[in-house]
Design brief:
single chain, 478 residues, alpha+beta, 2 domains, 14 strands, 46% helix, 15% strand
Length: 478
């Protein structure tokens, strides 16, 4: 591997400071007239709908071929798993739906499993969006609809009755609307400082958490605190003759030494990796470079992560201080966002920088080691990456075991969090005026979520049938 750097450019949705509050309210109300809130219920596949499997296969052209069967096997396991991996097909579908014309920095993949807890730099456990691979300036409605649909699909997977699913989706979207109206009444600094500590989560819900939900939250928090660098050391590495090495668990974890066809390449590869880290170092703040300089690269492995990301190049890096204290970093490939084909190309030449800037815009607090690079792979191709800690008290909700009441509360927390993320970069006052004080928007999005969940089930069946017919190769259970 070799590396190159790109100029640092940071751009985001902008709001002219001379625009008055009254003008921003008027803009939101005018958008409501042009694109009524009830219109967001619309979803019709139509005969000219892009083939979702063709879109997924198109993504595979730039991915690691031998890992694609793992991706398809994971997506085929359930309709919810398929939905998690189908950000591109949904973006294609959303591009055909009404837009208010109000733009924010969007997540691009705001399903409920992409929210969770992690450690802030102050070592508090916070709740936030935690995946930004697809982030880009775009229509805020797309994030809300993806979140709402994910709740509907998860409710179906848990066999909740239709009435319970309706309550869950309406509550989540209502929480988004009400939070945006609250943020519209705050100043910019107040919005920027707003965050959700784990201790405050219950305050964001419409009702108290009951015994089972409280126990589940406590269990998730306790589990998240074990996911630190020492925990990763015990999970992913062993010490051989005093030298820590990452364990091989093919095909999910493959040390870089096992990917080299010529043992003589090892020294050159190690030198290239160190140069790569030096390039990444320059994207960090100066005080964080001092911290990174305490560590030395010890080993590196390719690691399969997620569902939709499988096949993209993701590397786990083990660094050590004094040969003893570990720091695990993850370098994850960052290609173009799935939204770019529908809202325009990113302003950042480096996809890793696109992810980092979007994450910093949307998250209340971000990983202190968040940075980016461009590197040349073993195949000679230049690719963009973003880098962050592999594990830092990261945890996610146990969606499969939630009672309906628990998912109502979780959806409300996600809705509040998404609104706060959007309010940081978008015109929160215009958006609040567009959303209004009635339930019209959440009712419309609930209808959309049901229709799209039906389509997702059809798309999932198409994938399973393609696998059964031998058209698509899949490895189940990996």
């Amino acid at each position: 591997m070799t590396q190159t750097t790109t100029a640092r450019r940071r751009r985001a949705p902008r709001l002219a400071p001379e625009v008055t509050r009254e003008e921003r309210v008027a803009r939101g109300k005018a958008a409501r007239v042009a694109v009524p809130r009830a219109s967001h219920a619309e979803f019709t596949a139509g005969p000219d709908r892009a083939d979702p499997l063709a879109l997924l296969e198109g993504q595979g052209v730039t991915r690691v071929p031998e890992l694609l069967p793992i991706r398809y096997g994971r997506m085929a396991s359930s309709p919810f798993a398929f939905f998690r991996g189908a950000a591109l097909p949904m973006a294609s579908d959303l591009a055909r739906t009404p837009r208010s014309g109000l733009t924010v920095q969007v997540c691009g993949d705001a399903h409920l499993a992409n929210f969770g807890v992690f450690a802030s730099p102050e070592r508090n456990l916070v709740f936030d969006i935690n995946d930004f691979d697809e982030t880009l300036p775009g229509p805020w409605e797309w994030d809300v609809k993806r979140l709402a649909t994910s709740l509907e699909i998860a409710g179906r997977a848990n066999e909740y009755p239709a009435k319970a699913r309706r309550r869950i989706v309406l509550a989540a979207v209502a929480a988004y609307r009400q939070a945006m109206r609250s943020f519209a009444g705050m100043d910019g600094l107040g919005v920027w400082y707003a965050h959700a500590d784990v201790a405050d989560l219950q305050a964001l819900t419409s009702g108290p958490l009951h015994g089972r939900e409280r126990k589940t939250l406590a269990r998730s928090v306790s589990k998240a605190r074990t996911k630190d660098n020492l925990g990763a050391m015990a999970r992913f590495a062993t010490v051989d003759d005093g030298v820590p090495r990452l364990n091989a668990e093919p095909p999910l974890v493959v040390p870089v030494r096992d990917l080299l066809s010529d043992p003589g390449e090892e020294k050159a590869t190690e030198d290239a990796l160190r140069q790569m880290l030096a390039s990444y170092r320059e994207t960090l703040e100066p005080e964080r470079r001092v911290l990174l300089d305490r560590y030395r690269l010890a080993d590196m492995a390719r690691k399969v992560v997620g569902v939709g990301s499988v096949g993209t190049r993701s590397w786990m890096l083990l660094l050590l201080e004094d040969g003893r204290y570990p720091l695990f970093l993850q370098a994850k490939e960052a290609g173009p966002s799935v939204l770019e084909a529908f809202v325009g190309a990113s302003e950042f030449r480096n996809g890793g920088e696109r992810v980092v800037v979007g994450q910093r815009l949307m998250q209340a607090v971000s990983d202190i080691f968040l940075g980016w690079i461009q590197a040349e792979g073993f195949d000679g191709q230049q690719r963009d990456f973003y880098i962050r800690q592999l594990r830092d008290w990261k945890g996610s909700a146990e969606v499969e075991t939630m009672l309906p009441e628990g998912m109502v509360a979780y959806g409300e927390i996600c809705g509040w969090t998404l609104a706060r993320a959007h309010a940081r970069s978008g015109d929160r006052i215009a958006m609040a005026a567009y959303l209004g004080g009635s339930s019209a928007f959440e009712v419309a999005v609930h209808e959309f979520a049901g229709s799209y969940a039906d389509q997702n089930e059809r798309d999932h069946r198409s994938l399973v049938e393609a696998i059964d017919a031998g058209r698509i190769a899949a490895e189940p259970g990996i």
